[in-house]
Amino acid sequence: MQKKLIPKMTTFGKWTIILLLAFILIWPLTVGVYWGVYKGYTAIDAMRFPWFRSNIHSILDQTKPSSNEAKKGIVLSSALSNRLEEEMGSTFGWSVNDLIVSPTRWLDNRANRQRGVIFATRMLINFFSTNLAKYGKVDAENASLKEAREKYFAFSEASWWFPSTESQYRQGIALLRKYQDELAAGEAIYNMRSDDMYNMLTFIIGSQFLDQPLGLLVQTNDEVPYADLDDRIYYTQGVVLVLRDFIRSFIDLYPEIKEKGGEKNVRIALRDMEQICTFDPLIVLRGDHDSVTADHRGKMARYLISFRERINDLAQSIRR
User: pLDDT exceeding 70 applies to what percent of the chain?
Assistant: First the structure.
């Protein structure tokens, strides 16, 4: 009699429970597999770039604030191309121009980082060549730098052959090295004055430079396809990786910047750059408004805005 009181589970109920259990179990399993694969990939191709790994250290160690201006010019001109060289020498090399049949063509995070790297490299070498490598604005540019910026670094980042992107960028780097040799021999110019420091910092945070990646980060979510979110984050990371090498070298070589602009401004600017250079979420999310999920693009934008404001404070302190 008591057995009859226990309701018998239907086939539908059984399958419902099985499906619910499978749904509950499959998420941690899927995330675990994805995490393991991604960690394996990053072990052979880094996606986080702390400052201590930058190759620029070897050059900075040999140059001090008391060094002559030519040596400082060599360091800064090396710093602006350092990240580009590291990208081309990385595990999978320059992947932006890989053929569609190549597996590396589908590594879009590294490809967009590299697009940001070449954008920032172009911007810095243009400023360096037209402002720092001559005594006055009416002076002629250094021939090696002019050719490098107008011909080789301006070349398309996506050309596989005839000629390849890598070959063009390497020729640009070779011309940069030629300029450095000329500097060491006293046959070229490097001239960093206070007004150049101010102009350089305002150029970096201006509409032609940092506003470009910042615009990609602050555009509203409903205007950005979900597939584009990570592209914008890693593009910004590429831009800041180049800036970090350059700005940290600049601050190390000219410690008076800290005295004028304040230790705190410098410390926060460097911290925000480091946050961007080591930013690599397992999955890029776009939490909207009061969503419980993270807004990774918004996080990157906050780091970049904070960095820009601190650099602006430094620039204004130099001007005073």
Answer: 96
